[in-house]
Amino acid sequence: MHCPFCRHPDSRVVDSRTSDDGSSIRRRRQCPSCHRRFTTVETASLSVVKRSGATEPFSREKIANGVRKACQGRPVSEDDLALLAQKVEESLRTSGSAEIDAYEIGLAILGPLRELDEVAYLRFASVYQAFDSLEDFETAISGLRAEHRASRAGEDDAPAGTASSGV
């Protein structure tokens, strides 16, 4: 790392800390030549490989914009969209790969979007997974209904804290 003051080609790391969301590292450095200190911020780059083969930097804003269309007219706030984009980025970064296929990003969006709003999930899935018949919608809706039944059955099986023993 070149010193920004004297352009010396080396520097010494004095302190390292992870930043706000843990996606970058803030380092305090000192130049061995002029002894001045400066800060660098290091981030691991995440690239998206598009269908055409072109690559571009990952963008949370593009995630939010794509999902915003599916959420149009739904009770979803901008904060919800920002949080969803953050969750998607975090899940992609845990894969450990520096290049992510655009299709994988779409798959990573589906889970958090289903938790956020099921109607928006169906809208997004219908475009992303190229639904081409009513059966595709019916299958997706049946899956959501089965999840609802399973979650309700789990709630019904839970012990009620105020039930009498009948003795």
From TrEMBL:
Q: What does this protein do?
A: Negatively regulates transcription of bacterial ribonucleotide reductase nrd genes and operons by binding to NrdR-boxes.
Query: Pfam families per the record?
Result: ATP-cone (PF03477), Zn_ribbon_NrdR (PF22811)
Q: Where are the zinc fingers (unnamed)?
A: 3-34
Keywords noted in UniProt? ATP-binding, DNA-binding, Metal-binding, Nucleotide-binding, Repressor, Transcription, Transcription regulation, Zinc, Zinc-finger
**Does the keyword Repressor belong to this entry?**
yes
Xref: InterPro entries:
ATP-cone_dom (IPR005144), NrdR-like_N (IPR055173), RNR_NrdR-like (IPR003796)
The domain of life for this entry's organism is: Bacteria
- Record-stated family: Belongs to the NrdR family.
| Presence of keyword tRNA-binding | no
Entry's cofactor comment: Binds 1 zinc ion.
Q: What is this protein called?
A: Transcriptional repressor NrdR
Q: Name all ATP-cone domain ranges.
A: 46-136
Cofactor(s) recorded for this entry are: Zn(2+)
Positions of the UniProt region annotated as Disordered: 148-167
